Amino acid sequence: MPQSLADDSFGDLVRLVAQQRDRAAFAALFRQFAPRILQYCRKLGADQGVAEELVQDVMLTVWLKADSYDPAQASVGTWIFTIARNRRIDRLRKESRPVPDMDDPAMTPVSQATPEEAAQLVQGSRRLHGAIGTLAPNQSEVLRRSYFLEQTHEEIAEETDVPLGTVKTRLRLALGHLKRSMKDTA
Amino acid sequence: MTFPHHHPDDQLLIGYASGQERVGKSLLVATHLAYCPDCRRRVAAFEALCGSWFEELPGEAAADLDGLLDRMDGLLVAPPATADKSADAEAPRLFDVAGEPAGRLVPEPLRSWLPEAIDSPVDCGSWTELSPGVWLSAWQRTLAGTNICLLRMAHDAPVPAHRHTADELLLVLRGAFSDEYGHYELGDVAHYVAPTDHHARGASKEDCICLFLLDGDLIFLDGEEERRAG
Predict the structure, then answer these.
(1) To the nearest whole angstrom, how far is the Cα of A176 from the nearest Cα of chain B?
(2) What would the pLDDT profile of B91-101 be if each residue is shown by its tens digit?
(3) Residue A47, Cβ neighbours under 10 Å: how many?
């Protein structure tokens, strides 16, 4: 891949930061992700100054928490997205995002699954990934604008130059496509 | 073990994963996730989808980001990880908050929001009776426009007819309840959109206690209005 590294190479860079405090590895991660964090925060309403502070804040978290990155759970891009998401909610909305506590004794662990439930979990997960992968491009695009960029239906209609009704239809079709991947026990 | 069977819809799960959903409904979704391994995986898949959109954002810098990297130089010191970890290890585990066995505890993140264990007696001042066998908690919050409290239903006690101007959501924390759409047990979520007519009633020997979320106002109908609305 020209100019960008394969995803496991980003994982290697995070490991170098975690284990050796490798500044060159950190700089490579910064060059890849800092522009994207900046764009993300700008698109969600941060002015340039606040967006740059958020870039610094998120990348400093990457430096400090590199040892908590688990390649089995998420790609480096997804991990950094979740950090950027949490920071901009704190900063731009002055809200703290409620999250489950993985060490909470009251948490229902996946290990309590009956064999039938465990099989359903694996199947459901596979079906959902399949459904996400087979979303029509225009349906994926309304999901992206509506949830990732937090645009209203009217904004999406205007920016993509399609009628408002079409935006709503595409969103409904996208959600319907994902819903069909749910296990049928509900 | 039985996992929940009634889940938040994908709009809520994607909104939670992307960060679009506000704090009120996120509190209900996050607490459902503590009960539901299935939705934890679903949220992780939606986070990965958002992660792919994040990676696709244009990589050209709109500003002098190298300068920003240079200015971070002084911040890049080794994290004080060892100090943090030892403090965590010494913190008491919350296995018996208020003497509750872990299985009876309300999971995080909701537990930290509540002032006391949810099973306080109905006459202790923490509950206000709405109708025979149905109570609302004195604990109430309004978070980002969503009104939040606890709803408690004795066995077979019907929640009075009401009308709501926007979404209503229930998450079962204790016992079970039923309505015309189904039977809801621990960790299950019921989601009613604005004009939906629904009649919940307690369906377990012990009182059913739910986290109760409402966008906008709740209007209880008197007998006459109820007949007209029904």
Answers:
(1) 9
(2) 444 444 445 55
(3) 9
